[in-house]
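Structure representation:
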Amino acid sequence: MRIGIISDTHGLLRPEAERALQGVELIVHAGDVGDPEILAKLKRIAPVFAVRGNVDTSPWAQELPVTTAVEADGASFYVLHNLRELDLRPDGAKFDFVISGHTHQPEQAEKNGVLYINPGCAGPRRFNLPITLALVDLAKRPWSAQFVKLLS
């Protein structure tokens, strides 16, 4: 099972992101969606689990949870927007992944057996940070994120 991980679209779903997500079986959006149409477009590709980010303040966004837990193909994901607001011990709660956004920096790190992934920013460019999303193939162990640069 391939999982697409995206964050910080801020109301912009680039065609490059839609192409990169083709073939995934699940999409996780780690917040700062910016526009409900983003989620509608992503749902045409695969089922979507999304959380609310700090820019998601419009009435439509109140339906999005601040955190969510997702199970897929034997793996468990804890999703939130800002990693600094992590409110549990993911290893103690038996999560395999923690997915977050907010910093616009793509990164992954393993801590206590949990893989932390920030897919970076897929929306409007901030500063000189790359425009990216991440893909995870749950069939390939050890698990690792593949970062996809959407713009050069």
Remarks:
- Residues 2-149 form a domain with the Purple Acid Phosphatase; chain A, domain 2 fold (CATH 3.60.21.10).
- The helical segments are 15-21, 36-43.
- The chain has a mean pLDDT of 97.
- Strands lie at 2-6, 26-29, 48-50, 67-72, 75-80, 97-99, 107-111, 114-118, 132-137, 145-149.
